[in-house]
């Protein structure tokens, strides 16, 4: 392999955040000549011209690819086709790496030669958990516990001819708008040892808690599609548990007569079922 790491970023609608990510790469406690950065750019150049930002980082090994087709999974797969690293990662266009992120990843891969996928956690600059409460313990990820330990920006994969591509029917920019990362992790649990380590840390800003109804619909459809595309005993049990959880939340919203929560709760349940029913396996590319 030409590089140790290939960092694949599919981006749309952001510019200054790209600069912040590249600044974080410059601060890595790692040999930057061993790092390839692939930016798959879905922006209209008249609105956002990333070349102006990228040109400020000539010391980094950056591959800038323009893509006319929108979709997170599709464009990550374009990046994967151009990756020349021993290890693959998929940073978001609004995340940053900490100085020791790649060093910890490499050490963990060397310690676990049988693992083809390693996961980490997301924290803010004060060390607080972001998105969810992350375990402080190292965990072997299995079909039974994968769902609560997944985020695409903390996935690091060992490159091989068998490295999994993203399911292009799942993820932001598609009808089934989520769970493209969940799908990857679940498939790896079937073929490889998967390890979660709290030592691997990635920065991401705290998300807006006021999620729109449209996002609820999209995320829920994605979950249903993910379960259908990987249907077995474990995903069926997961589907049942998640549905029960959201039904109970909906009941609570009904009892409180909270219209916004009722609307989101209904769509959380309905669209998960809808996604499951509408997804067909031959839609995977």
From TrEMBL:
Xref: CDD domains: Glyco_tranf_GTA_type
Superkingdom, taxonomy of origin: Bacteria
Pfam families recorded: Glycos_transf_2
Residue stretches making up the Glycosyltransferase 2-like domain: 6-156
Annotated keywords: Membrane, Transmembrane, Transmembrane helix
Residue ranges crossing the lipid bilayer per the database entry: 236-257
Family per record: Belongs to the glycosyltransferase 2 family.
Protein name as catalogued: Glycosyltransferase 2-like domain-containing protein
Organism: Bacillus cereus BAG5X1-1
């Amino acid at each position: 392999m030409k590089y140790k790491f290939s960092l694949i970023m599919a981006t749309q609608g952001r510019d200054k955040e790209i600069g912040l990510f590249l600044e974080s790469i410059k601060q890595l406690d790692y040999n930057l000549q061993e790092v390839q950065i692939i930016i798959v750019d879905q922006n209209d150049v008249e609105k956002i011209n990333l070349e102006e930002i990228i040109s400020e980082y000539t010391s980094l090994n950056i591959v800038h690819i323009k893509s006319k087709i929108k979709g997170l999974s599709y464009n990550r797969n374009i990046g994967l086709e151009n990756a020349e690293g021993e290890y693959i990662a998929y940073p978001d266009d609004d995340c940053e790496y900490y100085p020791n992120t790649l060093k910890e990843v490499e050490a963990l891969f060397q310690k676990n030669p049988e693992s083809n996928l390693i996961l980490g956690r997301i924290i803010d600059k004060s060390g607080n958990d972001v998105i969810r409460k992350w375990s402080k313990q190292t965990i072997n990820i299995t079909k039974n516990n994968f769902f609560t330990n997944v985020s695409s920006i903390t996935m690091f994969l060992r490159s091989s001819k068998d490295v999994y591509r993203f399911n292009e029917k799942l993820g932001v920019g598609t009808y089934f708008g989520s769970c493209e990362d969940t799908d990857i992790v679940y498939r790896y649990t079937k073929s490889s040892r998967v390890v979660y380590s709290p030592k691997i840390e990635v920065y991401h800003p705290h998300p807006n808690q006021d999620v729109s109804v449209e996002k609820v619909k999209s995320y829920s459809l994605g979950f249903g599609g993910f379960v259908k595309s990987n249907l077995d005993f474990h995903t069926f049990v997961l589907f049942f548990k998640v549905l029960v959880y959201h039904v109970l939340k909906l009941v609570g919203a009904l009892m409180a007569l909270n219209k916004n929560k009722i609307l989101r709760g209904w769509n959380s349940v309905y669209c998960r079922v809808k996604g499951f029913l509408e997804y067909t396996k031959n839609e995977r590319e």
